[in-house]
Amino acid sequence: MKNITSTQEQLLKELAAIFILEGEKYPDDTVIEMLQEELEKEENLGIIEDSSELKEIKEILSNFDKMRETNDPNYEGTGPDALDPVFEILNNLNLIVK
To answer: In 10 A of CB 16, how many CB atoms?
Structure first.
């Protein structure tokens, strides 16, 4: 795993758990909202600023909001590949076991 703090690792693991456990039960839109809620918790804001992976995940998720709000034709919030970029980040950190 990259050089990340235990606090960052814990938050990334929480995101991975949401991704894995809730991803089976809910559509991508709902999982995106769950991930965003976790990232927007006040205690997590400082953790995100010091982690490029967490900032990247937050940016990916915020792009979904922007596309949804503007009815962007590229928005595929419920498509099968919508969360692939988030999966790749978590997978590269060995937080997701296939």
So the answer is: 20
Whether residue 97 lies inside any domain: the answer is no
Number of domains in the chain: 1
CA dist 97 and 13 (Å) reads: 12
Q: Which residues have a Cβ under 8 Å from the Cβ of 94 and sit 6 or more positions away? A: 1
Please report, as a single letter, which amino acid is at residue 95.
L
Domain that holds residue 52: 6-70+80-92
Model-level pTM greater than 0.70? yes
What's the DSSP call for residue 1? -
* Average pLDDT of span 27-38: 91
